Give the backbone structure.
Amino acid sequence: MEDTSNIQQKVPVSIQDELRTSYLDYAMSVIIGRAIPDVRDGLKPVHRRVLFSMHEQHIGPGGAHKKCARVVGDVLGKYHPHGDMSVYDALARMAQPFSLRYPLIDGQGNFGSVDGDSPAAMRYTESRLARVAVELLADIDKETVDFSPNYDDSELEPVVLPAKFPQLLVNGSGGIAVGMATNIPPHNLGEIIDATIEIIRNPEVTLPELMQHVHGPDFPTGGLIYGKSGILQAYTTGRGSITMRARSSVEKTHKGDREALIISEIPYQVNKARLVAKIAECMKEKRVEGISEVRDESDREGMRIVIELKKDVFPQVVLNQLYRLTDLQTTFGVNNLSIVQGRPAVLSLKETLEHFIEHRREVVTRRTRFELRQAESQRELVEGLGMATTDIDRVVATIRASADTDEARTRLCALPLRGLGEFLRRAGRPDEECEKADAAGDYFLSERQAKAILEMRLSRLTGLEREKLAKEYGELAKTIERLRAILADQELLMNVIVTELEEIKTRFSDERRTEIVAAEAEINVEDLIQEEDMVVTVSHAGYVKRTSASIYRAQRRGGKGTLGMEAREEDWVSQVFVASTHSHVFFFSDTGKVFVKKVYEIPQAARNAKGRAIVNFVGMEPGEKVAAVMSVPRLEEGRFVVTVTRRGQIKKTALLEYENYRDKGIIGVRIEESDQLLVAALTDGTQELVIATRTGMSIRFSEEQVRATGRATMGVKAIELEEGDEVVGMGTSGDGRDRVLAVCERGYGKQTPIEEFRKQSRGGKGVILIDASERNGPVVGVAMVCTTDEVLLVTDKGQMIRTKVSEIRETSRNAQGVRLMNVDDGERVVAIEAFAADSDSSESTEHAEGATPPEASAGANGHSADPTPEA
């Protein structure tokens, strides 16, 4: 018969089940054995093995530094067979003062830098345990923790370290496992210990009470934490987002009239070299205005990044731009995941500390039991030696009478000794204990005591040594009583833990490095910038600048004007508007995209300066050009953006549709290829619109005739144009603006009551606005005004004049008007801007330079009560 005993049975297994089981085993192996720290000692296996190996090799703070290669080799050979770099990287990180709040390794040599430099090779660097790391390993030889076999069962390694302080929170941890990750920020040692003691003394303590001790993370690189909501969420749920910022200050440069931003601390885990490079990149690409130079002046004294600013640049504006575009501001995503009783768990602050306290309770209990056994064992020997010295004559006689050591030990164990009470009295024991010993009679030695007596040196028989034995016995007896009391009383046990925590705090605690700033106290750039009206000019070639409105003094109608921008043959001012420094500015490109900036972000320049290229300032794509510019004081509900093209297409979109703008722009309006966006205005949805054409035609209709649509729409027809005609501007009613101001190229213009323009339906041909005769030239702009307004006119040669509307003659629709500005031959008016005059402007017909600026009211075409542009 065939033997089938050695034939293996093949069992069919589903590949899905096998993959699922194998993958889960792998995942748990990574989670438990590699990437996630233990909640008790806050260490991953590789860090624990490095520290334990150095402890075994006695590479401690009291000795010399040893080569890191020696440590790595020992760890690899005994405990961690996963590659030398994995061990060395872990060792190096524990020595980096910018990675750990309290480094566990005292390194000597190059262990990397905050610039991202790698540590030197392990054969060049040396290390030893830091003093604070010794406290993680303290009492490990007193059976305080369990040991398990290493990978080949040749050595034993600790499952966890005794850890006298909450290392997990003190130094934090980070790691990516399979399907989960941990990211725990470091904290101040003193604060964490205070919170731990608070929980021990009051287990029902609430989180707000704990946060009186733990204010928040304390990063080794310092910096600032903005807001406490993220901290509170992280401490409550174990997950949260914390905003970190660099610490900065402002200094005067050697150039005297300029300032520099000094960065002395950066957010945790930010690469300084990359940060400096990013700032330089933003400066080079003009994404941040006002920076002239960036350099790193860091040395052994500390970090110092110098950002030199251009003249008259507000430092806080530049700093806020850098916060948005660089790692001067980052977030730390807290995920307090750790291994709890062999399973991964996300813990709150209190839960984390409670698990540590439970660990310390077990450690101190096991240590106390070990020390009790040791003390009782030692007391037994001392008691035997004390009895021998008390009855020494009989002991010596018994030993001399014995043939060998074994016989002597046996005879000593059977020898009744006297004088136990006398020995206890010498040891200072209580009278009742001594009397009880006297009443007990003879004392018999144990085998251990007999062996110790046989090995005792004759010098122990002197009177001084007998007193030392008695004293040692008394001390051991007191120690045993104390240890038994600790084991019998949980309150005493917890007091031991508190005492040790207070000792750790006294030895290693230091001041906080990271400052926590309440979010409400965050500096608002606009609060630091004086609110004033600025004249924003846009040139035909696409340059923009802002100038204080006060420098354009009011002149009588018909004057020559003031040079507003140095004109060039290939460029001239095409758009102008007045707006507050706090207002938004919408830049519409010819492709229909819109870019949003604040007025204070627009480069300020002299009245005759060229300005800055808009395409670089707002980040337009190559080939894009500015088609319309609009000022928006606030992004609020109930307001609309109305756009008009040169071919008479009009579109209305809710202002809040533009709320979520981006640096790279968003879609503002769809434009036909043969058309061009002309003007954009801000309305309230109920205003009347007056649209003017180049040949002097106009149409008046209600804004309600234009249905509001989304941003990416084309709109509807506003006016029927004759062949060769085009739209040049739009005015909007409201706030008492009941007159239509029209201006022509040759500097002539007029104001006409709006009643003379009959209301029509949208899409009609309209009526005459002004006689666009040869004397006047074509119409360049239209605005809705009132008699108290002022108007600013700009020519293609850069001349500007500011005059009062009340000085402009009121005429009928088809009249030619009066001279508003004296222009030279070959010069022409290209833009107008109307605005409300302030009270001072009414007192004098001519302002000196530096007069109080006007309050912007109506755009160049009278678009709204808020300053808006004319194209």
Observations:
- The domain at 247-327 is CATH 3.30.1360.40 (Gyrase A; domain 2).
- The longest helix spans residues 349-390.
